[in-house]
């Protein structure tokens, strides 16, 4: 009789090949998902985004938009007008990403009370 081996557990490497570190951590930051959801209905200008996402600083919005553009989720279009007009919109990849993120947000909304109760119970034990 051969001895059964335990299934190998996944190792999350600290490098760019790890999808959790490389992709999920970026979109799971404080602002990225909010920006992506703000762009679901179509393109937006910078100030319109800033006014829709309460609490985000101009610097943080700029940096997060750059990161989302770099990863291919957002397109930045500059219109040669006076004054210059810049609009941001989801790419096909960004639109595709928003679908599972929406499921996560729905899950969070459906389980929010359970999570609050679990946190309260944990905090009371501490």
UniProtKB/TrEMBL annotation:
Name of protein: Helix-turn-helix transcriptional regulator
Gene3D superfamilies: Winged helix-like DNA-binding domain superfamily/Winged helix DNA-binding domain (1.10.10.10)
Chain segments annotated as transmembrane: none
Matches recorded under InterPro entries: HTH_HxlR, WH-like_DNA-bd_sf, WH_DNA-bd_sf
PANTHER family linked: TRANSCRIPTIONAL REGULATOR, MARR FAMILY, TRANSCRIPTIONAL REGULATORY PROTEIN
Residue span(s) of domain HTH hxlR-type: 18-116
Single GO molecular function: DNA binding
Keywords associated with the record: DNA-binding, Transcription, Transcription regulation
One of the Pfam families matching this protein, by short name: HxlR
